[in-house]
C-alpha cells in the first residue's frame, strides 16, 4: 500500500541521514587527527633535537609527548640564545659609543694642534715632551695593569672608575709628574 511505501521511504531516508551524519562526523574527526599528526610531523622535522640519529633501529617516530617536550626545550634554548645575543648587542653598542667619544676627542686634539702647530715649541723639544709623556703614562699603566682586569669590556668598565679615583687624583698625578721630571733631570745632568 501507499502508506507502507511512505513509511519505508521515511525509514530509509532517516537511515541515510544518520549514515550521512556519521560519515560527516567521521570525516571531520579524521581531518582533525590528520591535522594534529601533520603538526607533530612538522614539529619533528623542524626541531633539531627531534631528528632520529640511530638508523639501526629504523625510522621510528618519537612519541607525541617526547616531541612536545623536545620542542619546549628547544624553544627555551632559543629564548636563552636570543637573550645572550641581545646582551652582546648591548655591550657592542656601548663599545661603539665609547669609540665614537674617543674619536671626537682625538679629532678635537688634532684640530687644536693644526690650528696652533707652533705653540710651545720654542721652549721644549718634541723628544723631551715625549719622554715626559712616556714616563707619566708608564707609571699610570703600571698601576692600571696591576689594578684593572681587561678580560672583558664589562669588567673593565666596572673597575676603571675606582682606579681613576684612586690613582688619578690631582696630588697623585702631581707626584708622578714631579718624579718623572726629577728622573729626566738626573738623566740630562
Main attributes of the structure:
rod-shaped; mainly alpha; 81% helix; 189 residues
Structure, explained:
It is a single chain. The longest helix has 52 residues, at 64-115. The chain is rod-shaped. The mean pLDDT is 81. Helix 3 (126-147) crosses helix 4 (153-167) and helix 3 (126-147) crosses helix 5 (170-188). It has a domain at 126-188. The protein has 189 residues and is mainly alpha-helical. It is built from 5 helices and no strands. The chain has helices spanning 2-46, 64-115, 126-147, 153-167, 170-188. The chain is 81% helix and 0% strand.
Concise synopsis of the structure shown:
The chain is mainly alpha-helical and about 190 residues long. The protein is built from 5 helices and no strands. Helix content is about 80%, strand content about 0%.
Portion in beta strands: under 5%
Low-confidence stretches: none
User: What is the subunit arrangement here?
Assistant: single chain
Compressed to H and E, one letter per element, the order equals HHHHH
Q: What value does the average pLDDT take?
A: 81
Task: State the distance separating the first and last CA atoms.
Answer: 144 Å
Structural class: mainly alpha
The total of beta strands comes to 0
Which bin fits the share of residues in helices? over 70%
Characterize the main sheet.
none
What does the overall shape look like? Answer: rod-shaped
Radius of gyration: 40 Å
The tally of helices reads 5
Amino acid at each position: 500500500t501507499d502508506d507502507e511505501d511512505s513509511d519505508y521511504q521515511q525509514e530509509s531516508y532517516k537511515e541515510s541521514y544518520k549514515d550521512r551524519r556519521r560519515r560527516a562526523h567521521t570525516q571531520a574527526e579524521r581531518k582533525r587527527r590528520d591535522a594534529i599528526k601533520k603538526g607533530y610531523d612538522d614539529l619533528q622535522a623542524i626541531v633539531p633535537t627531534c631528528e632520529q640519529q640511530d638508523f639501526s633501529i629504523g625510522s621510528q617516530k618519537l612519541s607525541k609527548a617526547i616531541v612536545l617536550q623536545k620542542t619546549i626545550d628547544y624553544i627555551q634554548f632559543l629564548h636563552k640564545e636570543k637573550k645572550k645575543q641581545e646582551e652582546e648587542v648591548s655591550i657592542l653598542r656601548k663599545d661603539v659609543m665609547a669609540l665614537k667619544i674617543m674619536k671626537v676627542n682625538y679629532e678635537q686634539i688634532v684640530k687644536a694642534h693644526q690650528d696652533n702647530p707652533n705653540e710651545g715649541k720654542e721652549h721644549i723639544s718634541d723628544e723631551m715632551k715625549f719622554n715626559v709623556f712616556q714616563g707619566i703614562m708608564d707609571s699610570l699603566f703600571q698601576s692600571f695593569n696591576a689594578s684593572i682586569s681587561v678580560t672583558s669590556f664589562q669588567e673593565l668598565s666596572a673597575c676603571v672608575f675606582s682606579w681613576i679615583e684612586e690613582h688619578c687624583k690631582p696630588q697623585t698625578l702631581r707626584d708622578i709628574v714631579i718624579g718623572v721630571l726629577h728622573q729626566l733631570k738626573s738623566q740630562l745632568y
